[in-house]
Write a structure and sequence with these properties.
The chain is of the alpha/beta class and 156 residues long. It has one domain: OB fold (Dihydrolipoamide Acetyltransferase, E2P). It contains 5 helices and 6 strands; from the N terminus they run αβααββαβββα. A 5-stranded mixed beta barrel has the order 2-3-4-6-5. The radius of gyration is 17 Å and the shape is globular.
Length: 156
Amino acid sequence: MNCEWIRALLVLLAITCVTPLLGDSGALDTSMVQLLANPSDFHGKFVRVSGYLHNQFEDTALYLSKEDADFLNGKQSVWIEFGDEIDKDPNKPLEHFDCKRVLIEDIFDKNMGGHMGLSSTGGIRNISRILEETRWFDGKKHLQKETGSPGERLKR
């Protein structure tokens, strides 16, 4: 029994040590809820966060939910600015990601605001990576077979 326990711990340790070598960007995984509730805790940090993207004129923000985006609820969003070079999955124009759930990563700035103060919580500058999230369930049935979480895909 002890050998099995030790073997399991060694496997977990090996996975933990090897994961950064497989292309992990070193971003701090967080949620929109944590980012919105505690912007000072994330100021200046390299973050990876998931949300609903609006990439439109005077509304380039990552929202907590589609409903918040539909109502332009700036209190539930962070402003975003894309960098010059972006790693995109799928590799499509940025317009492809508009009105979709995405994972993004880069440096969070609590002092950054949106157009006319739309996103008062802060923002993420020079987005370097964006990943379209896969919808797994529609409330009635599974839509996809799981092959890894979106966060694991972004780490590749």
